[in-house]
Amino acid sequence: MKALKLLVIGMGILILFGTTGLGILLYKKLEVSTIDTSEAKETVVLLPEESHILEMQTSDKKIFLRVSEKTDGQQSIIIIDQSNFSDVKRIFLKGLKH
User: Fold this and answer.
1) pLDDT (tens digit, 9 = 90+) per residue, 24-80?
2) In whole angstroms, what is the distance from residue 35 CA to residue 85 CA?
3) Is 50 left (phi over 0), alpha (psi -120 to 50) or beta?
4) Nearest to residue 68, comparing CAs of 53, 56, 84, 58?
5) What is the pLDDT of residue 70?
6) What angle do CA 33, 36, 41 make, to 5 degrees?
7) Shortest CA distance to 63 belongs to which of 86, 42, 81, 48?
């Protein structure tokens, strides 16, 4: 009977530690990470004159800007690599005017 009582107490302690451990792991997993802005640098992307951004979308490594030029309404997509911000590509969309 004494062994059974010790076994039940031991199991209760294990359940308590397990639940606490799971709670700590979940808290750390859901914790919002802060972004270190001390290393952030300013990057300038030059848009064509008299143009405006119609739409912006992001993926894991790229930023996509859909741009319309005010002069003739020609649309293009500017693709920016987020890893270095220096690899900029532009795709012209023929026939699309805004």
Assistant:
1) 999 888 877 666 666 666 777 778 788 889 999 998 889 999 998 887 778 889 898
2) 18
3) left
4) 53
5) 80
6) 140
7) 81
What single DSSP character describes residue 48?
Answer: P
Burial bucket for residue 29 (CB in 10 Å: 0-12, 13-18, 19+): exposed
CA distance 74 to 92: 8
In this structure, what token pair is assigned to residue 2? 């004494």
Bridge-partner residues for 56, per DSSP? 65
Residue 39 has, within 13 A of its CA and on its CB side, a CA count of 3
Neighbouring-strand partners of residue 57: 64
